[in-house]
Structure formats: structure tokens, C-alpha cells
């Protein structure tokens, strides 16, 4: 039996989603607001692959997705991405330096 390729399915779904937006089949730039959910879903998927145990890659994707989702929703009086995005690079760099 051939193994299911989730990565291929995700790419096809993303392509269809972006195509539907570019053809204006979706209302008011909804993909622009909800794209951070893609990061969160992929992060959750990575956790599920490891039997819900700590997975640094999954945790980083969930945190980044949450970070960007809060920013695109406008829940804070300032732009997190516009002002603090370099902290993402710093945090990932520190993680890579201290991981075992």
C-alpha cells in the first residue's frame, strides 16, 4: 500500500485556496487574514506525528502562527510584525545555539 503524502495534499489545498482568492471567489482578502492558521495547523500536525510529545518544530510553528494571527486580527494597539519581527530571528537563533 502506498503511503499517503500529506505534504502534497497541503500544497494542492493551498494552491486551490490562493487561486480562489486571486479569482475573487473568496470575500475580502480572507486568506490574508487567516494564513497564520496554516502555520498553526502544520505545527499541530507535527505534534501529532510525535505522539503529542514536545516537538520544537511544531512549537515554533504554533507560536509563530499565533504571533501573526494576533497581529493580523489587530488585537493589539501596535503592529507586532512591523516592530518586533527581528525577535523571531533572535529567538530561533538562540534555540539553535542552545539545543542539544
Helix-strand pattern, N to C?
Answer: HHHHHH
How many distinct beta strands?
0
Overall outline = flat
* First and last CA, distance: 37 Å
Low-confidence blocks of residues:
none
Structural class: mainly alpha
| Major sheet attributes | none
Fraction of helical residues: over 70%
**Strand-residue fraction?**
under 5%
Count of DSSP-assigned helices: 6
Number of domains: 2
Let me know the average pLDDT: 77
What Rg is obtained from the alpha carbons, in whole angstroms? 16 Å
Descriptors for this entry?
100 residues, single chain, 2 domains
Summarize the structure.
This protein is mostly helical and about 100 residues long. It has helices spanning about 5-20, 30-35, 35-50, 55-75, 80-85, 85-100.
Helices and strands in order:
Layout: H1 6-22, H2 30-34, H3 36-49, H4 56-73, H5 80-84, H6 86-98
Descriptive overview:
This protein has 100 residues and is mainly α. The chain has two domains: 1-32; 35-100, no CATH class. Helix content is 72%, strand content 0%. The protein contains six helices and no strands. It has helices at residues 6-22, 30-34, 36-49, 56-73, 80-84, 86-98. Helix 3 (36-49) runs antiparallel to helix 4 (56-73). The protein is flat and about 45 Å long.
